[in-house]
Design brief:
With 351 residues, the protein is α/β, with parallel strands linked by helices. It has 13 helices and eleven strands. The chain binds pyridoxal-5'-phosphate.
Length: 351
């Protein structure tokens, strides 16, 4: 173990693949007349023109992300949501009907779905009762066909971040990629794994603009890793995976970090208020601590409370069918007014 070689885990067909070469990547210079991409040169029937293909490698947006995250642009991949990055990682490194990935339920559902679509087995090792990684069992379950390990930290739906030294020990012994999904990292006081990229050639960090940056509708997911890994993802991605509108709007939003930080602060304050208020209700038996923008609560009868809230026009997520989450609801932190509405609804609930 601990003899990581990217070349060894890369699928042979991907290694020898000659990627599609788009008009926009074959010619990148300045010109006035573009007759190379079969675009409609007469323009879009709109006030604004979208008749040109977007930058396939999103250079300006990566420059912006790079200055915010203190990483090089060559260490950044931008996907149509994190889900695209998850899918591409599986396709690049896992051979269908042969390889497997490890996940640690209860956790985000897309790793397993994406694996299943690609005919990849998902091996599951449950978290411990206090939602920590079961490192001994994880190490036992790694076999020669295990190519990827997905660690969601802060974890969805439990809300906690995992013990750093547990993650570190997996990074050290595993010869495949460890993908740390940090979708909620901006709500957390604990640091990102981004600063450890240079220490671990097998580390991939996923982030997203869907949560703290409030851009779920735009679909921007980020993967950070060594240049070698990023080059592989770029090689197999659809050439124009991020639209020009998305690139431009995301750039504008990232220029306004102050605004995003203000909202993160409000969400975290509201989270503390809700947490305290939840504890006063007898039917809420546990409020789990959360580094994210949601709270997981255990109640006496999750199905009943879920339906009651629905009647009050409030939708939360019933996670009761997830392992270790019996009678648990996941509640996203709303606006201050929405949170008051939620508390009022809870006050009128009787078992
Ligand atoms: C919300 C979420 C994402 C974000 O996915 P996008 O496709 O970027 O919107 C990723 N991972 C986890 C664990 C999430 O909860």
């Amino acid at each position: 173990m601990a003899n990581f070689s990217l070349d060894k885990i890369l699928r042979a067909n991907v290694k020898k693949l000659i990627p599609y070469s788009s008009a926009r990547s074959e010619f990148e210079g300045e010109a006035q007349v573009f007759l190379d991409a079969n675009e409609n040169s007469l323009g879009s029937p709109l006030n604004e023109n979208f008749h040109r293909y977007p930058d396939p490698l999103q250079k300006e947006l990566k420059q912006k992300i790079s200055s915010l995250k203190h990483t090089n642009p060559e260490n950044i991949f931008i996907g149509n949501g994190s889900d695209e990055a998850i899918d591409l990682l599986i396709r690049a490194f896992c051979k269908p009907a042969n390889d497997n990935i490890l996940i640690f339920p209860p956790t985000y559902g897309m790793y397993e779905v994406s694996a299943a679509v690609n005919d990849i087995e998902t091996k599951k090792i449950l978290l411990t009762k206090d939602f920590e990684l079961n490192t001994n069992e994880i190490k036992n379950q790694i076999d020669i066909n295990t190519k990827l390990i997905f660690v969601c930290s802060p974890n969805n739906p439990t809300g906690n971040s995992f013990n750093e030294s547990d993650i570190e020990s997996i990074l050290k012994i595993f010869n495949g990629l460890v993908i740390i999904d940090e979708a909620y990292i901006d709500f957390s006081k604990k640091g990102s794994w981004l600063k450890k990229l240079n220490d671990h050639p097998n580390l991939v960090v996923l982030q997203t603009l869907s949560k703290a940056w409030a851009l779920a509708g735009l679909r921007i997911g980020l993967a950070f890793a060594s240049k070698k890994i990023i080059d592989i993802l770029n090689k197999i991605k659809p050439p124009y995976n991020i639209s020009s509108v998305t690139q431009r709007l995301a750039y504008q939003v990232l220029c306004n970090k102050k605004e995003a930080d203000k909202k993160i602060k409000i969400i975290n304050q509201e989270k503390e208020l809700l947490k305290t208020a939840f504890k006063a209700f007898g039917f809420i038996t546990t409020v789990y601590s959360s580094d994210a923008n949601f709270l997981l609560i255990k109640v006496n009868n999750a199905g009943k409370l879920y339906k009651f809230l629905l009647v009050q026009n409030i939708v939360v997520r019933n996670r009761s069918n997830q392992p270790l989450c019996e009678n648990c609801l996941r509640v996203t932190i709303g606006t201050p007014a929405e949170n008051i509405q939620l508390l009022q609804a809870l006050k009128s609930f009787s078992e």
